[in-house]
Design brief:
Layout: H1 18-24, H2 29-35, H3 41-48, H4 54-58
Helix pairs in contact: 1-2
The structure holds zinc ion.
Zinc ion (ZN) binds at residues 7, 9-10, 12, 40, 42-43.
């Protein structure tokens, strides 16, 4: 679904960094996360494990 606004574990706001992450992803996820300043591993796993499924769900709208 949509990317979460906050990290589930520590509650840091991460939703505003997701667009930057996607833009930098061509360099590899570890470098992209370093550049946007996400250092805690609980927050980093939010980015790495997220699946962008909103487009595949939108197909079922009438
Ligand atoms: Zn966190």
């Amino acid at each position: 679904m949509e990317f979460p606004v906050r990290c589930f574990t520590c509650g840091s706001v991460i939703g505003d960094k997701y667009e930057d992450y996607k833009r930098l992803l061509s360099q590899g996820p570890d470098k992209a996360l370093d550049q946007i300043g996400v250092t805690k591993y609980c927050c980093r796993r939010m980015f790495v494990s997220h699946v962008d499924s909103v487009d595949s769900v939108r197909r079922y709208n009438k």
